[in-house]
Amino acid sequence: MNSDYSLSNLFNLEGKTALVTGGSSGLGLNMAKALVQNGVKVAICSRRKEKMDLALSDLRKFGDCIAITADITLPEDRSRVLEGVEQYFGCLSILVNNAGANWGAPLAEYPDEGFEKVISTNLNAVFALTRDAVPLLKKSASVENPSRIVNIGSMDGLHVPVVQRVPTFAYSASKAALHHLTRALAVELGPQCITVNAVAPGFFESRMTDYIFEHYLQDIEADCPLRRVGQAEEIAGVIIYLASRAGNYTNGAVIPLDGGTSVSKGAKPWDER
Ligand SMILES: NC(=O)c1ccc[n+]([C@@H]2O[C@H](COP(=O)([O-])OP(=O)(O)OC[C@H]3O[C@@H](n4cnc5c(N)ncnc54)[C@H](OP(=O)(O)O)[C@@H]3O)[C@@H](O)[C@H]2O)c1
Fold first, then answer.
1. Does the active-site annotation cover 216?
2. Which among 26, 32, 28 is positioned nearest to 64, based on CA atoms?
3. pLDDT band at 270 (very low <50, low <70, confident <90, very high)
4. Do the domain assignments include residue 1?
5. Which of 19, 20, 25 to mutate for ligand 1's pocket (most ligand atoms within 8 Å of CB)?
6. Coarse DSSP helix, strand, coil percentages of the chain, rounded to the nearest 5 percent
7. Distance between Cα 225 and ligand 1 center (Å)
8. For ligand 1, atom 23, which residue shows the shortest CA distance?
9. What is the dihedral sign for C-alpha 131, 133, 139, 145?
């Protein structure tokens, strides 16, 4: 038993390797930064090369990082990403399934293609990439130091969002399914020394939330018991915990990171909304 509970031991990530999908902006870039600043070799992937190049030059100030341009909904791109990780790092200790898409439209106008795009990015691609990453994750897994899969879900998969105004049916459904996929995979992969957890964020500033922050920030803050949106260091803290020795025994959990929004009915009575 290792009874060194110093922060430098309990949260030590030195020598690990990680793949963060959608690591070129928003929450993914923050998590990639948190990992690389703590000694993890990090690969990021996303579709747009210019954004990736910017993110890469930012991340490389702190440590070892590579970027692979890829659309995770395409099987050939997913294979290329995993081949790149194997070639550069040899194995994988942390897979962060973060890339995500959203589509908002009133029910009567909600297009099939929008529904399919969201489900295919937020759910199907996560499942396929995870399945294909298991051999690489197993290479660095042990009882004392399991490999990790962290799925970025959403509080919208825990409750039905109320402040969004434009309904996001596919998004909520995809994230609720991702939370349950997390539990099913945790049961499957636990015996192979791979933990699987999800984080369910509330509102954080990013490209995905640009519009809603511009128009409804006051409502978002009023709806949250802490009366504010999430901060970058708060997602950084959760990923460090889940990836570290302190998180070794956390498996099959869906961790809300929303200031209590998903357990609250908000500040306003329902009839004043
Ligand atoms: N921000 C929030 O308040 C919030 C709340 C709850 C959950 N989340 C979740 O957090 C995750 C990150 O979102 P974010 O808010 O940080 O948004 P973001 O800034 O728009 O980041 C999304 C990232 O995913 C990449 N991406 C999107 N589709 C992709 C695809 N098919 N293949 C590869 N990469 C793809 C994007 O790059 P390219 O466009 O260049 O591919 C970008 O790097 C998502 O899963 C989202 O649902 C966010």
1. no
2. 32
3. very low
4. no
5. 25
6. 50, 15, 35
7. 25
8. 22
9. negative
Q: Which two tokens stand for residue 156?
A: 């919208």
Domain count, the chain: 1
What is the position in ligand 1's atom list of the atom closest to the CA of 205? Answer: 1
The pLDDT of residue 2 is 86
Question: In the structure, which protein residues have their CB atom closer than 6 angstroms to any atom of ligand 1?
Answer: 21-22, 24-28, 45-48, 51, 70-73, 98-101, 121, 152, 154, 201, 203-204, 206-209
Predicted TM-score (pTM) of this structure: 0.97
SS3 95: strand
**268 domain-assigned:** no
pLDDT band at residue 41, thresholds of 50, 70 and 90?
Answer: very high
Res. 272: pLDDT tops 80? no
The mean pLDDT value for 104-111 works out to: 94
**Closest atom of ligand 1 to CA, residue 230:** 3
| Whether pLDDT at 271 is above 60 | no
Instruction: Give the structural domain span for 221.
Output: 7-255
**Alpha carbon distance 265, 263 (integer Å):** 7
